[in-house]
Amino acid sequence: EAVTPQEYTALKLKVKEWAPEAEAAVKGKIPEGSDVFFVPATLRPETMYGQTCCFVGPKITYGVFKVSEKEYFVVTDRAARNMGYQSIFGKDNFGKVEKVAELVGSACVGTLVDAPISVHTEGIRILPMESVLPTKGTGVVTSVPSDSPDDYATVMDLVKKAEYYKIKKEWAELEIIPVIKTPSYGNLTAKFLVEKLKISSPKDTKQLEEAKELAYKEGYYQGIMVAGDFAGEKVEDAKPKVRKQLIDAGLGFAYSE
Ligand code: A2H
């Protein structure tokens, strides 16, 4: 657990089509015409153009929490409690949360969601990631395989073992577009580092840790945006601008822990 508070950007990924098992679990518990959002927490809002899927821990139990009459969030109980104290469920509800349903991660796999600012405007799928920690962020992790070594290694594994994971291969195979270019790693940092460090699976945790470190330093200090409204600008400058755009547009909000 970090000692200094972590300031995340929480992103709202609206459900377009439920996986059957998840649909059965929420049926009758959410009023007709409501919007339900999976809410990943990220430290890299400037990379959100490259989202290709969104991860949940298959064994993690999530709650569906009421935000307002027609709005619900899927996050861990722990994150909902934190959100309650950050007035995310309304100022009048300080410290209060209302859970209307529970969903195990595996039941959500295959759900189609709308990912704000992603180039994949047709939507992206909820997919399983074994290494999602229930104790960090919201327990939901949006996947940007161009810039996150963890995400890249997981997506490659899902493609390779689609049958084992009981997913459709094409759900994991959305195009990985360049979002940031750096002098050392080109325009697909995560792919470059995963290959360079010979990472063959998400279980290569030691090398992934190193890749993450390298990707973060190079991306943040040397990175130039090649996608989105701030293409051509330094990552350092674009990061707060993308974050502000997302929040101002109601597509995301500040979440800290
Ligand atoms: B980041 P920190 Cl492009 N379990 O977002 C595991 N990982 C989690 C998590 C959880 N419960 N909650 C959030 N995360 C991930 C983008 C990204 C991220 C990129 C590159 C690096 C990167 C797209 N995924 O993180 O321990 C989320 O993934 C590298 C660490 O609080 C979040 O940002 O520092 C980051 O880890 C938060 O990790």
From TrEMBL:
Protein origin, superkingdom: Eukaryota
UniProt record similarity statement: Belongs to the class-I aminoacyl-tRNA synthetase family.
The protein here is known as: leucine--tRNA ligase
**Species the sequence originates in:** Calycina marina
Give from-to of the shown chain within the full protein. 295 to 551 of 1128
